Here is the input.
Amino acid sequence: LVIKKFTGTAAAAKPAAELLDPGAEIKAIASNGKYEFRRKDGPDAAIPDAALQGLLALIDPPKAKSDDDMFGTTTTKKPGDAWAIHAAAFAATLASDKVTVDPKDITGTVKLAGTSTLKNIPCLTIDSTVQAADLTVEPLEKAFGKTRESSVTIQNSSQVRIDPAELSGANVGTVKFHAVYEKQVDGKKLTRTIDDTSTHEQSEIKIK
Here is the structure.
């Protein structure tokens, strides 16, 4: 890669800063699914952490995972059984929406609650609860400043048709989001608190 212009803007709305010098040559090395970046102008030419994150997003942008990746199980379950969500896959899906969270800060369970019918078609009822803390929501940080605290709780109840040839169903859920943001404006500290609860209901969905 040859850099023409590479800038970054801090969450506190400071002017964009050059993260890499124009003309800098960067070599990307892939190994075991991971990337390493080096400057061609010598081993002592450091690459700032902010630039490393941007380069990684450019070379290997986050990709949303499937519902099965996040909530699925590889073992047979019966009504009443519960299992843990896949936190790494859930974090990857959030990252694809510009939300950053460490998988260790994500907990959740999935439960095969029982059977039901949807338009007279047999279905499985699957309930899930996911909780995450210390999230960084990029658009909100750009608007309101640095994240001081944040958490989200996501609850869903889905009806999934049993016929494997037609993986569709219905879904109803609730998302509760809390966050506190802080930034300096004209020498004054401004704090913004967000407490939001949203609900959704879908009568016909395709299961990915």
The chain has a mean pLDDT of 81. The CA atoms of residues 70 and 86 lie 5 Å apart. The longest helix spans residues 49-59.
